[in-house]
Amino acid sequence: MSAVKKAEQEIQTLKTQLDEERRLRMEAEQALKDVRRECMEPFIVPALFDAFLSVSKLTTKLLGRARTYTLGLVA
Questions:
Q1: Is residue 28 within 8 Å of residue 53, measured between CB atoms?
Q2: Of 5, 17, 51, 72, which alpha carbon lies 20 to 30 A from 28's?
Q3: Is the model's pTM score more than 0.70?
Q4: DSSP string covering the chain, please?
């Protein structure tokens, strides 16, 4: 395999990793926004906090998938 092909493969791998890191960062930022909103006017007890974050993450994932699907990025 030529050095150019190896470099191109490495670049593609790094781009894929970068995209994944960006997606994870966006999920974390959304969860943080939800937490900040909850802190302003609390409506749940601490025991439900984990469930609240799980629902928030699930909603973020579903919206991301729906957006990807509507853009035609998924076969």
A1: no
A2: 72
A3: no
A4: --HHHHHHHHHHHHHHHHHHHHHHHHHHHHHHHHHHHHHHS--S-GGGHHHHHHHHHHHHHHHHHHHHHHTT---
Q: Which comes out higher in pLDDT, residue 61 or 67?
A: 61
| Nearest alpha-carbon partner for 27 in 66, 71, 69, 64 | 64
> 71: alpha, beta or left, given left = phi > 0 and alpha = psi -120 to 50?
alpha
Q: How does pLDDT run across 40-55, given as a tens digit for each residue? A: 766 666 667 788 888 8
d(CA 41, CA 4): 56
